[in-house]
Amino acid sequence: MKKLLTIPIFLIFLSLVGCSAVPFIGPVVTGVLTWVEGEAHKYYPYDADVVYRASKRALDDMGLEITKDEAKSNDGHYLVAGKEDRFKINVDNVKQDISELRLRVNFMGDKDYAELFYTKVDDQLSTIRFNERGEPVFCEDED
């Protein structure tokens, strides 16, 4: 009986509050950046390799040295970067052309630094780098 009352109560609340409830509901619906036990999660409409290369360029842009770079069995990637392995990054394919980027900063997580990293990754996703012949290059070719 209590479960049946939750929907009408929610609808009444929404009708009283109106559009001012949208800023509170918006982040929950879009799922832009979520936190689970000190680890940030974000989904991208790209293949895991694209997000992986953007993550490497973002780390380079932030001046963080990559200390571990491993390919995972599920077409994913694992990166460790920064002093004392500060950043632990997992990039996994969820479905075709959908990938998840998980990030843990330090042991407990550093939300502000993680948001900065995700902003850098978002910027790098829309960037294509070219070599001197005008051909697009990947991270491995840039050195």
Please provide a written account of the structure.
This protein is an alpha+beta fold. The protein folds into two domains: 1-30, no CATH class; 31-142, Sirohaem synthase, central domain (Double Stranded RNA Binding Domain, 2-Layer Sandwich), CATH 3.30.160.110. It has a six-stranded antiparallel sheet with strand order 1-2-6-5-4-3. α3 (48-61) packs across α4. It is 41% helix and 26% strand.
N-to-C SSE string, H for helix and E for strand: HHEEHEEEEHH
Taking the sheet with the most strands, its summary is: 6 strands, antiparallel
Rg estimate, integer Å? 19 Å
CATH superfamily of the largest domain: Sirohaem synthase, central domain
The count of strands amounts to 6
What is the annotated CATH architecture of the largest domain?
2-Layer Sandwich
Q: Proportion of β residues?
A: 25-35%
Distance between the termini: 64 Å
> Low-confidence runs (pLDDT<50, min 5 residues)?
24-31
Instruction: Name the strands of the widest sheet in spatial order.
Output: 1-2-6-5-4-3
CATH fold group of the largest domain: Double Stranded RNA Binding Domain
Write down the CATH class of the largest domain: Alpha Beta
Q: Using the alpha-carbon principal axes, give the shape.
A: globular
Average pLDDT rating: 78
**Helical proportion, percent range:** 40-55%
